[in-house]
Amino acid sequence: MPKGICLNLFGTFWTRDRSWINKYVINHERIHTAQQRELIFIPFYLLYIIEWLIRLCQFRNWDKAYYNISFEREAYEHGKDMTYLSRRKHYSWIKYLTRS
Questions:
Q1: CA-to-CA distance for 75 and 69, rounded, in angstroms?
Q2: What is the C-alpha to C-alpha distance for residues 80 and 68, in angstroms, rounded to an integer?
Q3: Which mean pLDDT values do the consecutive 10-residue runs of the chain (100 residues) have?
Q4: Which of 62-82 are b and which e, b meaning 16 or more Cβ less than 10 Å from the residue's Cβ?
Q5: How far apart are CA 100 and CA 82, in angstroms?
Q6: Per-residue confidence (pLDDT) for residue 100, from 0 to 100
Q7: pLDDT of residue 59
Q8: How far apart are CA 94 and CA 66, in angstroms?
Q9: In terms of DSSP H, where are the helices of the chain?
Q10: Phi–psi pair at 9, nearest 5 degrees
Q11: Which residues make Cβ contacts (< 8 Å) with residue 84, sequence separation at least 6?
Q12: H/E segment holding residue 60
């Protein structure tokens, strides 16, 4: 796994180097875990990949595609809000599908 990457698989976090992992990264990943659970995991990964491919065609840039995936947009927008998960509504990522 490349440095500076944290992968969340079925609610477990995988990274090569934990030195950069802080409470905000953990919160970001916990938001992804909530997204995964509400979609019963496998559909989350399928939707994630499909949306990334659509965004890649849209932006023609790997980073822009990644940062515009609805799941990532929700997690980045609320990653520093440590109380977000306690008040998050199910399927909150949907509003990020079309929001600019």
A1: 10
A2: 18
A3: 87 93 97 98 98 97 97 98 98 89
A4: eeebeebbbbbbbbeebbeee
A5: 24
A6: 58
A7: 96
A8: 16
A9: 23-38, 42-59, 62-67, 70-78, 84-87
A10: -115, 110
A11: 27, 31, 78
A12: none
- Residues in the chain, overall count: 100
Tell me, what's the pLDDT at 69? 98
Q: Which helix (H) or strand (E) holds 9?
A: strand 6-9
Residue type, 5: I
What six digits make up the tokens of 23?
């409470």
For position 58, what pLDDT does the model report? Answer: 96
Residues whose CB falls within 8 Å of the CB of residue 39, separated by 6 or more in sequence, listed in order = 47
Question: Residues 30, 85: contact at Cβ < 8 Å?
Answer: yes
